[in-house]
Amino acid sequence: MEIRDAVIEDAHAVCEVRRRSISELCADDHRNDPEILNKWLSNKTPQHFAAWILQSDNSVLVAVEGDTIIAVGAVTDQGEITSNYVSPDARFRGVSRALMGALEARALERGNQRCHLISTETARRFYQSLGYVETGPPDCKHDMSSGYPMSKHIAAE
Ligand SMILES: CC(C)(COP(=O)(O)OP(=O)(O)OC[C@H]1O[C@@H](n2cnc3c(N)ncnc32)[C@H](O)[C@@H]1OP(=O)(O)O)[C@@H](O)C(=O)NCCC(=O)NCCS
Question: Which of 46, 63, 89, 142 is the most buried (most CB within 10 A)?
Answer without folding.
Answer: 63
